[in-house]
Design goal:
144 residues; alpha+beta; five-stranded antiparallel sheet; two-stranded antiparallel sheet; 4 helices; globular
Length: 144
């Protein structure tokens, strides 16, 4: 009999949705990317609810996710993603783990900025060259 170890999410864990769709778009997307991954989210941890400068005295906290929805970034409840299959990636180095509070603060600032929009040029500048190099087996240039 095997014992299952309980897994707990930690702040700044990265969650990646797995694309198992059978529709033509999903099949082409998996083939083009060479992996089954679809969408990336960052677990923020349990955040307190605040409205109009007033924090609830009940200590209500909600597990939240940080994600880009294509028009900017948003914070949303983890419960919106229940039932979805994901891969969890966790920072290992102590240096990176110490930076987690700063990453969380910046993510909240960015999600709170109504003027922050998604920069589609980043996909062309960084993601596409990396995908091409990986597909062709060419090492990435140092500038990336």
């Amino acid at each position: 009999m095997t014992q299952e170890k309980e897994f707990k999410l930690e702040p700044v864990d990265i969650l990646i949705n797995i694309n198992k769709g059978k529709d033509p778009f999903s099949v082409v997307k998996r083939g083009a990317l060479g992996n089954p991954y679809e969408h990336v989210l960052m677990y923020m941890g349990r955040l307190g609810i605040e409205r109009g400068g007033y924090i609830s005295s009940y200590g209500l906290t909600v597990p939240m996710l940080f994600e880009s929805n294509g028009r900017g970034v948003v914070l949303q409840s983890l419960s919106n993603r229940y039932g979805q299959e994901v891969v969890v990636m966790r920072l290992k180095s102590e240096h990176d783990r110490r930076r987690a509070p700063h990453v969380l603060d910046e993510a909240i600032k960015l999600a709170s900025d109504t003027q922050a929009y998604y920069d589609y040029l980043c996909i062309v500048k960084y993601a596409i060259p990396r995908l091409i190099c990986e597909k062709l087996g060419i090492p990435m240039p140092l500038k990336y």
